[in-house]
């Protein structure tokens, strides 16, 4: 397994959509993407989800694409969504030493963990911990 460093092109990662189960490309060329790794058992993650949802709504269809990746079972993540519904794209992945968060630089295994991928698929930035408000996300997500 290769760990992507800042400035490098991320490996091709595709994960199932939490709601539909259909595969979704996480990396590769496309819009600027903010990818947030979370889990329902993570207190800071729970508080951050509405912040990311508000930020995603501010971005609309042409701004930064927000994607969340639940590092837990589909059932656990869906149960959380019934409590805290969000509209942005949510994917699911079994956590482990080679999961996509590690491939994108989360060597400390901390959640929440957020990365910014540019339109060419390069890893621009990483962030450990929760964002307190949409303005903090906006300030960090500038390429």
TrEMBL record:
GO BP term (any one): cytochrome complex assembly
Keyword line: Cytochrome c-type biogenesis, Redox-active center
Short name of any one Pfam family annotated for the protein: Redoxin
Localization: Cell envelope
Primary residence: other
One term of GO molecular function: disulfide oxidoreductase activity
Domain of life: Bacteria
InterPro entries per the UniProt record, alphabetical: Redoxin, Thioredoxin-like_sf, Thioredoxin_CS, Thioredoxin_domain, Thioredoxin_ResA/DsbE_sf
Any one Gene Ontology cellular component term annotated for this protein: cell envelope
Domain Thioredoxin as annotated: residue spans: 4-143
Record protein name field: TlpA family protein disulfide reductase
Organism (species): Arenimonas caeni
Lineage: Bacteria, Pseudomonadati, Pseudomonadota, Gammaproteobacteria, Lysobacterales
């Amino acid at each position: 397994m290769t760990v992507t460093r800042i400035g490098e092109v991320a490996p091709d990662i595709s994960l199932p959509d939490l709601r539909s189960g259909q595969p979704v490309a996480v990396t590769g060329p496309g819009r600027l993407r903010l990818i947030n790794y979370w889990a329902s058992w993570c207190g800071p993650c729970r508080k951050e989800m509405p912040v990311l949802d508000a930020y995603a709504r501010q971005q609309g269809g042409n701004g930064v694409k927000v994607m969340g990746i639940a590092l837990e079972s589909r059932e656990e993540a869906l149960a959380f969504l019934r409590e805290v519904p969000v509209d942005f794209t949510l994917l699911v992945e079994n956590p482990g030493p080679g999961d996509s968060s590690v491939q994108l630089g989360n060597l400390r295994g901390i959640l929440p963990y957020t990365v910014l991928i540019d339109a060419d698929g390069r890893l621009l930035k990483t962030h450990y911990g929760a964002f307190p408000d949409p303005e903090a996300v906006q300030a960090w997500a500038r390429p």
